[in-house]
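Reopening: structure tokens for the zinc ion complex, inputs below.
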Amino acid sequence: MSVILAIESSCDETSVAICNNGKITANVIANQTIHENYGGVIPELASRVHQQNIVPVIQQALTDAKVSKKELSAVAFTRGPGLLGSLLVGVSFAKSFALALDLPLIAVNHMHAHILAHFIDDPKPAFPFLCLTVSGGHTQIVLIRSYFDMEIVGETLDDAAGEAFDKTAKILNLPYPGGPLIDKHAKEGNPLAFKFPEPQIKDLNYSFSGLKTAILYFIRAQEKENPDFIAGNLNDICASVQHSIVDILLNKLKKAAQQYGIKEIAIAGGVSANSGLRHALQKMAGQQGWNVYIPAFQYCTDNAAMIAIAGYHKYLNGDFVGQDVAPLSRMEF
Ligand code: KG4
Ligand code: ZN
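Re-run output (same inputs, fresh job):
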């Protein structure tokens, strides 16, 4: 029997979840809207809002799961990677909470947790599988041999896919985070209206900074001819940018699947909520004979349920940390 309380605070979501014997019974997420007008997360503001949110979010999770603090078996938390000030709030709270209740502590790598979110609900991928983890800070192709044996086989050399969405949104004067808005406008647009170059990067790695620059120069050039270019073509621009990003992501994923001879394929992270990516992956699965695993929307972007399920498997494995544990803005995979 185990009841694990998990805390996620690596970026701008304060989230607490409860995992009761491997089942998620609460997953409370407090989003921060304060960053909308800045084009990105302001670290100092994020950590202050985490401090305001953490206690009410903990209380709500315990209420939702109908458990008392006395029934908890362990406290899991995101140790990194992420914004140091944001992580510090979750890690400090987890440590004092565990100390006060005399509970063991479980440190979770945020990027592992995005992948392990696939073990919350059925169907679950079979080992070994490949996961394309695409978020605001990371773009990785990961080979997963077991819950604890994961290897990055390809990753971005510069910007993450989420950044490509968010930076494009900024160029288009859309608020942060722009990914979901580009997705929304793309649904009404023509993905072949404008063409952007596909970067030629070796092996299974990615690069998105060139695409961002190409988009910026394209928009500037068009605006010289027509100052209302963005407003008049927003849906087509969004659909074309999304199409380019999805193509880049899936071409390398296909290469990885062929190279490793694996047909169990998953996606994870905030960008896995993108409808264009989800559709294109399904289509590719049909062509390639893959079994694909696409997370439920609530487990794509940052959430503590994924920390809780990762924590649960670490709990079963007896993998605990001491009170001297510190957050890591960069964390070894
Ligand atoms: O995993 P996540 O919540 O946080 C990080 O760990 O970074 O990912 C956030 C990223 C942001 O860049 C956001 O724009 C992107 O995920 N995102 C999307 C969509 N929903 C979230 N990008 C494209 N389409 C979406 N529907
Ligand atoms: Zn994340």
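Residues 11, 135-137, 162, 165-166, 177-180, 183, 269-271, 273-274, 301-302 surround KG4 (ligand 1) (CB under 6 Å). The chain has two domains: 3-115+300-316, 123-294. Marking as resolved unless the reporter disagrees.
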